[in-house]
Amino acid sequence: MNDELRKLHNAKRLLHESPPLVFDVDLAKKLQAQLNSKSATFSETTLLSVGTAFTANCAKNIYKHDGSVTKDIKTVSKKATDDWYLGNKVYDYKTGDMAAFDAKSRKLYENFTRMMWKSSTKVAFGMVNPPGSDTVWVVGYYCYDQPVVSGVLRSIDTVRKNVGRYCFTNGYNDCYNQRALARHNERREAHAGYIPLALDTDIAKAIQTLLTSTGFTGTISSQDRGKYSNCGENIFVLTDQTKLSQVSLTNLASDFWYGGMKYWDIAAGVAKAGNK
Q1: For the segment 174-198, what is each residue's pLDDT rounded down to a tens digit?
Q2: 100 has pLDDT over 90
Q3: DSSP letters along 33-92, please?
Q4: Number of neighbours of residue 142 by Cβ within 10 angstroms
């Protein structure tokens, strides 16, 4: 459960150039133990006191899930993450403050800023389903290396707006590369014995230079590969410009390439009969 929530959080954080959260196993054990100890008196009020003895520089998000439909960990984890991310709608990216100041907006704002802190040093999650109840409680516990005031970090750690199409640094699009890398490794992880891909910035720069050159025709020749002759490439062409956003383009290309799995005999390690 912790691993699932961490991955979902980091996927959201990547959209805003916040570094990946680091899981703290000891913190998770303490949090889960406290959640379990309160099983007889469960309410949001009792949950608010969970974790107060851990450190003064931490704060928590709480999500209440109706488990009468499903208690599947992946489903609950995604719903909790999406619920806490809703605060991006009330976050003022220019000031780092709330765009509105009513109670509902404040709660959304606080949930969002906690999960997006750039300098979070620890994170842990807890989940519990009280006996005889369909309710599933999820708690995200975030620790920071700066003091937390009323559960909110303001000017010391503002969240960057979704970076959009371009985020170039040192000759290549770092934002897109990081997102595409995460999407590829997410797909690779679904297959036993997978090895995570690692980003090679030199290759990324070479590809970007080629793509932006006036001589690029949509194909890459052996001459273009140069010293990267032992590499192969996938090319995705998007013709519907309405879909052209940083996030969707990352997923569209990665998922399009992964779609070839249906033509591949995994057991034999070869293309299925009748497919090239």
Answers
A1: 767 877 888 898 888 888 788 899 9
A2: no
A3: HHHHHTGGG-SHHHHHTTTTTT-TTEEEEEEEEETTT---HHHHHHHHHHHHHGGGGTB-
A4: 25
